[in-house]
């Protein structure tokens, strides 16, 4: 059986090696595109944040003549009040400005009477461009209010600390590795899981649905070789292709991070971390390949098999979206759910957290069990006589 499986595996790898363009796309697209995409997006986000924090923020201000001291204070914080357009709300909606300020007509009277003077921050919170400018404006106004309030208390002979009944402090227990991996935690697991899941897609689809369409599968199934060995050889070839592509992708991540000057340089790309990621993604390579084998065996043509890629590429997104919408604490059962398990394990590596042997056992045992189940289903598919019939 192993001799047959080895022969089929060599045959499939030889077939795809003849199509050099397809081979290059399958092996090099991920290693070149995904690291550049990840590091590039991180660098752009970091550059944008640095620009918005460092540059002088021009804020259209309605009623700026009502609060000259406030305007002067904002100038010391890198915020310059400018004349507001006639309809400041419409200007914000049209994205002419990220944030605006509206000073209440009663500001001067309230100020003289020692009452809270109303100042409104005008922004569209659904637009990410307004996040940093709004935060800068809010921090400056709160700082100004705190200073003025303290001076008013001192003028009345009252210690400003009296109004603070509780002094709140905070201790951040996040490790430096976790902080560095925070920006990459949203996109990196998805890219790696997707790459491992569909890394051998073209080979296994062509080796099953493609050969069935070309009517070259029937002679192979008519040989004395067991169908289990035949399908195992095809799966092994696709897994080898997927593992090679995944390994090149991880090497690409490592090189990109080392050459990056932004967030990518903060990523832990040691050989130990790369090795853990490879081990984590190993079950997903087998799960993806065996699942694709089952789907391709049920398809009458290569195009029909390729049509499954639309929803298959969405599967790795499910845990990422679910954790963003509804963050949950890490529990043992999560390491038994495909895609969610890979996502949680990769997050541990990105955050620099240790993984105990029990977690490794649960994860690897469940992952390979799912792959074995899908392999069994694929073998049963190959035992169906209609598989050899095209059309």
UniProtKB/TrEMBL annotation:
Record keywords, A-Z: Membrane, Transmembrane, Transmembrane helix
Annotated TM spans: 182-205, 235-257, 277-298, 310-328, 360-379
Keyword Transmembrane helix: yes
Keyword Membrane part of the UniProt annotation: yes
Example GO molecular function: ABC-type transporter activity
CC per GO annotation: membrane
Localization of this protein: Membrane
All residue ranges annotated as the ABC-2 type transporter transmembrane domain in the record: 29-375
Main location, first listed in the record: membrane
Membrane topology summary: Multi-pass membrane protein
InterPro entries: ABC2_TM
Protein name (Swiss-Prot/TrEMBL): ABC transporter permease
Organism: Lysobacter soli
Lineage: Bacteria, Pseudomonadati, Pseudomonadota, Gammaproteobacteria, Lysobacterales
């Amino acid at each position: 059986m192993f001799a047959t499986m080895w022969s089929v595996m060599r045959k499939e790898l030889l077939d795809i090696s003849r199509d050099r363009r397809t081979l290059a796309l399958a092996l090099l697209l991920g290693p070149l595109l995904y690291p550049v995409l990840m590091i590039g997006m991180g660098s752009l986000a970091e550059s944008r944040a640095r620009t918005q924090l460092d540059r002088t923020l021009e804020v259209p201000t309605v009623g700026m003549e009502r609060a000259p001291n406030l305007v002067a204070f904002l100038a010391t914080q890198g915020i310059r009040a400018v004349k507001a357009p006639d309809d400041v709300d419409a200007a914000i909606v049209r994205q002419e400005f990220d944030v605006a300020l509206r000073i209440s007509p009663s500001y001067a009277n309230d100020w003289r009477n020692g009452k809270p003077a109303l100042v409104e921050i005008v922004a569209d919170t659904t637009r990410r461009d307004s996040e940093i400018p709004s935060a800068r404006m809010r921090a400056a106004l709160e700082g100004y209010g705190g200073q003025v309030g303290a001076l008013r208390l001192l003028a009345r002979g009252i210690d400003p600390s009296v109004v603070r009944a509780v002094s709140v402090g905070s201790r951040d227990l996040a490790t430096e590795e976790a902080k560095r991996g925070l920006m990459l935690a949203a996109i990196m697991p998805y890219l790696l899981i997707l790459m491992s899941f569909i890394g051998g897609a073209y080979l296994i689809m062509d080796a099953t649905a493609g050969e069935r369409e070309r009517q070259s599968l029937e002679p192979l199934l008519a040989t004395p070789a067991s169908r289990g060995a035949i399908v195992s050889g095809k799966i092994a070839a696709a897994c080898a292709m997927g593992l090679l592509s995944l390994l090149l992708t991880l090497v690409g991540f490592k090189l990109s991070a080392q050459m990056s000057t932004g967030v990518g340089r903060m990523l832990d790309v040691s050989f130990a971390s790369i090795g853990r990621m490879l081990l984590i993604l190993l079950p997903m390579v087998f799960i993806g390949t065996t699942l694709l084998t089952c789907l391709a065996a049920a398809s009458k043509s290569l195009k029909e098999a390729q049509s499954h890629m639309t929803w298959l590429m969405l599967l790795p997104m499910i845990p990422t979206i679910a954790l963003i919408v509804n963050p949950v604490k890490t529990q043992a059962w999560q390491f038994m759910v495909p895609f969610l398990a890979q996502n949680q394990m990769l997050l541990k590596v990105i955050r620099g957290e240790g993984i105990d042997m029990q977690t490794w056992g649960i994860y690897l045992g469940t992952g390979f069990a799912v792959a074995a189940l899908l392999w069994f289903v694929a073998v049963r598919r190959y035992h169906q006589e209609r598989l050899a019939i095209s059309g």
